[in-house]
Amino acid sequence: MDPKNNQINEDFLKPYSNIDNEDTIYQQWEESGFFNPDVCIDKGITAKDADTFSIVLPPPNVTGVLHMGHAAMLAVEDILVRYNRLQGKRTLWVPGTDSAAIATQSKVEGEIYKQEKKNRHDLGREELLKRISEFAENSKNTIIGQTKKMGSSLDWSRYAYTLDDKRYKAVMEAFVRMYQAGLIYRGDRIVNWDPKGQTTISDDEIVYEERSATLYTFKYSKDFPIAISTTRPETKVGDTAVAVNPTDDRYQKYIGETYEMVFCDVPIKVTIVADDSVDKDFGTGALGVTPAHSAIDWEIAERHNLPRIQVIDEYAKMTVAGRLNGLKTKDAKEVVVDWLKSENLLEKAETISQNVSTAERTGCIIEPLPKKQWFIAVNKPVLFPDGREMTLKERMREAVAGGDVKIAPDRFNKTYYHWIDNLRDWNISRQIWFGHRIPAWFKDGEVKVQIDNPGDGWQQDPDTLDTWFSSGLWTFSTLGWPEMTDDLKTYHPTTVLETGYDILFFWVARMILMSTFLVGEVPFKNVYLHGLVRDAKGRKMSKSLGNIINPLDMIEKYGADATRLSLIIGAAPGNDVPLSEDKIRGYKHFANKIWNISRFVLSNTADFDTNSHIDLSARDKEILDQLYTTTTDVANEIDKFSLYLAAEKAYHYVWDELAAKVLEESKDILNGTNVAEKAARQKVLLECLISSLKMLHPFMPFITEAVWQRLPDNHKETEFIMVSKWPVQK
């Protein structure tokens, strides 16, 4: 017997240890260079003219650590990558991290204030950016290390960071091009303002909290004919209209009338307007229009040419004269309610449940305010690279409706269309210091938009860009744009974008917006949406519930393979994933099963002569037919992005068919005296083992690689299983 086979048997006498194998194996993978498709081509593993498979990693924020949502994302993407690599494709998975500007600056500012009692203005821009950069660098290294723990076969030679020099160049180029095309403009519009963070924020950075509120029904004055209802009576000093539905018979005779009165010391002038957006069955059916402090009211004001009067400032304080002057909005509300009562204008006050908009990073209630900001116009017709003129909204819709981008599951198409159809101009400027600074320069009222300083006396805009602006370029900025690199020509559009369904609008749609205009093609051909990871009871994981499962703890206890499989089986695209430690522990048992199957097969085939002539029995052929039917089914499910079904089929074949039936029935044959029958079954068992390892490899890369490296050299075509070939019947 080959001495190496003796060693193999000794290795398998011990149970499989993820701790002894995973870090070592990952290091071997990295050193091999095979995560890089160029290396695979250079070493003859992949054909130069092979089909491509490309995907970019949704860049984790440099503010935190790996959580189960990240782990699910990494598991799904690595399955797709490893499977397509086994299919012989030029397979590229681009890694990166996101500066996550607001989140990162907020976190660092909070730590500085806690330790030094200093704010950003005490430190100055240069010192704060230095501190943030140090934090981001340390956090990047942590995130990268944790990503590797999941077995992610990313091409680290192509690592990108949203604020590195290459991405900076791409962001500046994109801004200038879009400005020159008339898509980017500076104007006054309603924005989401965070009074505590002192910046605008994007819609995705809003957290809606259900709170109890009071709905007040009242009249502006005794002579005003219509009662209105609101939860924010303090804003009514900024009202310029009352809107009613044009079909509401109660108010027809008042439409077009204007009333002047004094409301809580503030003179106001209110016109009755008819607007289709008003729900005549909500409240009194009449809506007090405060154009400067409501996005909906701002649009009503645009339709009816109403004045917009700002009555609240950036610190959520009242700016009107009289008793409200300088009060915080919370205090002003009480003063207005007391005034309404004293004037006998309050008709009703009832408690309701209300979704309150709060800032994700500071917890502060969002104040809609009119601000001069930079925006991307989504309704302006513009010339696209293909020569057609259309709006960004039209092109974004067409990308999905025309089939250039396919979303899985397709039920999210309707959600996507709804968001696109209701899309407003995108506010892209932020009043923070960390991030891509806007390439706009001011001097004596003149504005220049260009990457470099125009010269003496020009001052750069202090604002930075919304982090989603740079993230929107991710598929092509990571491949070298604005230069037409070989990577960009070869791997773009990327094959698939995998992300959570919760950022379908904020990221996926904006990537389509950016790519179709700047590159002239969609950023990806497919979108795979995974669900949120919840606890076994379907609840969101949170500190308050004490139900958070840390993926790094699970990897240490049960291994990355078990953790990955637990996040895939039972997780249909777009559906939330119930997870418990018991589920992960169960797949650790499966890893042990694979180890034991491998030990049995290798122990019983050590004397198999690969050069001998083998005649297979009908049963042997049946076993192989079933094996390759399974590998074909698994491949078909992965091709359809039904990873959960692919994983289930692979799992049940190995456990229920190979282990429970084939191995059991083979024992008598292997221990019998019929040499030809034994040799045939040895051949079949080796083929079942090797093909099963390849089939399982995308899902469980570590255990399959550990076994692969213990196979005799004449049973494997490559040093590493990750660059072997997907099993097909010969």
Tell me what the structure shows.
There is one protein chain. The protein has 730 residues and is of the alpha/beta class. The protein has four domains: 105 residues, Rossmann fold; 171 residues, Isoleucyl-tRNA Synthetase, domain 2 (Alpha-Beta Complex), CATH 3.90.740; 100 residues, no CATH class; 137 residues, Orthogonal Bundle (Isoleucyl-tRNA Synthetase, Domain 1). A four-stranded antiparallel sheet has the order 6-5-14-18. The chain has a four-stranded mixed sheet with strand order 10-11-9-12, with helices on one face. A three-stranded antiparallel sheet has the order 8-7-13. Strand 5 and strand 6 form a beta hairpin. The protein starts with a helix and ends in a 22-residue tail after the last helix. The N terminus is likely disordered.
Helix content: 40-55%
CATH architecture of the largest domain: Alpha-Beta Complex
**Helical segment tally?**
23
β-sheet strand percentage: 15-25%
For the record, what is the CATH homologous superfamily label of the largest domain? Answer: Valyl/Leucyl/Isoleucyl-tRNA synthetase, editing domain
Give the averaged pLDDT, no decimals.
Answer: 92
Q: Could you tell me the number of beta strands? A: 27
Shape: elongated
* Sequence of strands across the biggest β-sheet: 6-5-14-18
Name of the CATH class of the largest domain: Alpha Beta
Rounded to the nearest angstrom, the distance between the terminal CA atoms is 29 Å
Poorly predicted residue ranges: 1-6
| Rg calculated over all Cα atoms | 31 Å
> Structural class of the helix and strand makeup?
alpha/beta
Count of the separate structural domains: 4
CATH topology of the largest domain: Isoleucyl-tRNA Synthetase, domain 2
Sheet having the most strands? 4 strands, antiparallel
